[in-house]
Design the sequence.
């Protein structure tokens, strides 16, 4: 397998866009036809059916998908197998996968999460990681990723309203998130791919365009995973600063905006998903 | 059900110690007899058998258990059911349970993790939570906990060697971990139990005794979950500062030191676990 950064770059160039489809299934948003087929006792199976259908609809259009582990965990053991099935199918369809699990633990415990993420359990191309516990929390993910040409995305500046409570505290002349950014830049620089980017990415919300530009400058070799576009309120203009001059460097996530652009009783929900995906791709493709 | 803090206090008073048994199963540390019974294809089932046996051995001695989600996740779907089975059995045995999952996400995603933790999936009494994403990451856990008289433990100052990389950065005259501590104290103060303590606890490592004392002063109503005792190097003297004058206020975790005090080929491993548990209890019971 080639370097994670190069696989990502190749997929983005081939599809001519950097859209990431977030798969965040919610029972109350699912098409009625799926809810009725599986019933409230079959939430995990319903999430699987819906997620697999989304993959089929977007696989030829977009380069990356990102299932959100929380919703699958809430669906119990059937949710667990649903998440595994969606990650497997996404890889078969040639999509780069991001397991959005935001794991954060230390030493051998972090290594267990990393083995789950990259090993037979999830076999994801990459995983999101929380840096609060320090280098011991990130290093085991880096080590596990590099053994198998996988990647990770460390939370740097998140897109939520209350993100600043701790991330924006200023220490030694710069906010905490920039301390995290500097650590990510140095971890990432150890092993760059041929495209010039590395395997330790950063999650940087699109809802703070000024910070996005500032962080792009400080982390020139780092892939950005950019949430906040679409339903969360950020526009295409807001995410521009995340991209490098060559159109690479960022993956822009949209979840609800792409996977739930319909009312549950809309029989045309599949067409609506394709339409919403193509619309987002058209908006974002100016970069490539 | 009564307030989480009161259930914890009652269990600690009844058992006359505040020891938390961490269940962190590792294949290479399991008794040979269990490894041979299940084989390397049956890791999840082996973790379940071992965890249930540990519960039987310690249930009459200790008040609290804390399974570590990472190791169960690594064991795949059988690990998922093993974790659920261990949490269920622990409750049946009257133990207070802490799901050590260190979850950290926002809004409806955090709510999904919280519903998994406290709802039918895990039905845990409490869960560990990562604060890096701010109040939006913690609030959904607090709301879900208060609906069902459960609790949470927010990572404040962790026990690992590299914890200080971001936690110790000084902002506005105090380190990041004290900013987190002050937020925890205010979230916790909203709803105290009859014992005078609340339902938003703090994870504070025993490997930094001076900081432990400082944080105890700043969070007088907050339950501390204290890792680092035993195999990680902290002594009974180191954890004293975590306790209030009445002997409540802290839960001291030991994982490997209690659950793996034997060589895998030791036929007497069950007796060794009981012995290690009683030794830790004797060391810690001076507080009550």
Sequence:
């Amino acid at each position: 397998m080639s370097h994670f950064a190069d696989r990502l770059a190749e997929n983005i160039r081939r599809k001519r866009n950097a859209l990431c489809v977030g798969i965040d299934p919610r029972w109350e948003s699912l098409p009625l036809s799926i809810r009725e087929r599986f019933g409230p006792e079959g939430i995990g199976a319903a999430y699987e059916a819906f997620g697999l259908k989304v993959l089929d609809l977007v696989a030829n259009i977009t380069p990356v998908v990102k299932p959100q582990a929380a919703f699958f965990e809430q669906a119990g053991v059937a949710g667990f197998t649903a998440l595994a099935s969606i990650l497997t199918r996404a890889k078969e369809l040639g999509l780069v996968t991001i397991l959005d699990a935001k794991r954060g633990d230390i030493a051998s415990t972090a290594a267990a999460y990393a083995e789950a993420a990259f090993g037979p359990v999830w076999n994801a191309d990459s995983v999101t990681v929380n840096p609060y516990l320090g280098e011991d929390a990130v290093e085991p993910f880096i080590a596990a990723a590099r053994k198998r040409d996988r990647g990770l995305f460390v939370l740097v500046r998140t897109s939520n309203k209350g993100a600043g409570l701790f991330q924006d505290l200023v220490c030694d002349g710069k906010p905490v998130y920039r301390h995290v950014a500097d650590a990510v830049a140095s971890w990432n620089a150890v092993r760059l791919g041929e495209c010039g980017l590395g395997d330790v990415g950063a999650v940087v919300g699109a809802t703070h365009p000024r910070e996005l530009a500032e962080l792009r400058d400080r982390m020139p070799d780092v892939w950005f995973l950019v949430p906040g576009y679409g339903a969360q309120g950020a526009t295409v203009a807001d995410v521009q600063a995340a991209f490098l001059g060559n159109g690479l460097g960022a993956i822009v996530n949209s979840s609800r905006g792409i996977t739930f652009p319909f009312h549950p009783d809309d029989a045309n929900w599949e067409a609506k998903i394709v339409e919403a995906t193509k619309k987002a791709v058209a908006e974002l493709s100016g970069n490539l």
Notes: Chain B touches chain A through 55 residues (CB under 8 Å). The longest strand of chain B covers residues 96-103. The CA atoms of residues 261 and 272 of chain B lie 6 Å apart. The radius of gyration of chain B is 18 Å.
